[in-house]
Amino acid sequence: MIFNYALGLKEVDKKMNVNYRKAIRAVVFQNGKILMVGTNKCDYKFPGGGVENDESHEETLKREVREETGYIVKDIKNRIGVITQRKMDDYDVNSVFEMVSYYYLCEISDEQTALNLDDYEAELGFYPVWIDINRAIQSNEENFKKSEDDRNSWLQRETIVLKELLKYHDTI
User: Fold this and answer.
1) Secondary structure of residue 153 in the 3-state scheme
2) Cβ neighbours of residue 123 under 8 Å, at least 6 residues apart?
3) Which of 22, 33, 128, 140 could pair covalently with 69 via S-S, beta carbons 3.0-4.6 A apart?
4) Closest by CA position to 86, among listed 4, 159, 5, 9
5) What is the torsional sign of CA 4, 6, 27, 24?
6) What digits encode the pLDDT tens for the residues 54-96?
């Protein structure tokens, strides 16, 4: 693993309820570019999302990449990082929301199918894009200038991962 970060709340009162979510995210390099999901806010996130029911990491990764990019994951290499985010839950008063995102290096097939976006993803204008990693970092950093209400919640997490990948790209 090349990175392991904790963002947000460092300590959680043991009396508080914690709502957990596990997410699986794909890191795909091809021809000097990285596969990202762009949005209408001009930022970029890694394809991936929440584990449903009893899905394995592999099943979640394949489903989410297909839904958000149309590409089919043909090979899952190794887990290259983890980011844990903790904050006060927006929907459950006196609770903490904790999401753990697992990042896997993947290879995809050349063929692409139709996207299958959730309503909020369609509203954000999700689209797959092959982009230079420096350009993705630059766009995400530009988004930090916006008010917190005008930024996507993943901005800090994904920018940290992009910067880590930039440091280690030749070794993974």
Assistant:
1) coil
2) none
3) 128
4) 9
5) positive
6) 999 999 999 999 999 999 999 999 999 999 999 988 888 889 9
Q: How far apart are CA 92 and CA 18, in angstroms?
A: 10
pLDDT at 172: 66
Return d(Cα 2, Cα 24) in angstroms, integer: 16
Strands 17-27 and 48-50: antiparallel
CATH number of residue 47's parent domain: 3.90.79.10
What's the mean pLDDT when you consider all of the chain? Answer: 94
Using DSSP bridges, classify how beta strands 3-8 and 17-27 pair: parallel, antiparallel or unpaired. Answer: unpaired
Give the span between the Cα atoms of 120 and 97, in whole angstroms.
19
H helices of 19-132, in order, are: 57-69, 119-123
- Residue 152 makes CB contacts below 8 A (sequence gap 6+) with 39, 41, 43, 45, 124, 143
Q: Using CA atoms, how far apart are residues 125 and 40, in angstroms rounded to an integer?
A: 5
Cα-to-chain-centroid distance, residue 11:
23
Query: 3-class SS at 70?
Result: coil
The residue ranking higher by pLDDT, 92 or 114, is 114
Residue 159 CB neighbour total at 10 angstroms: 21
Its domain, for residue 110, covers: 3-171
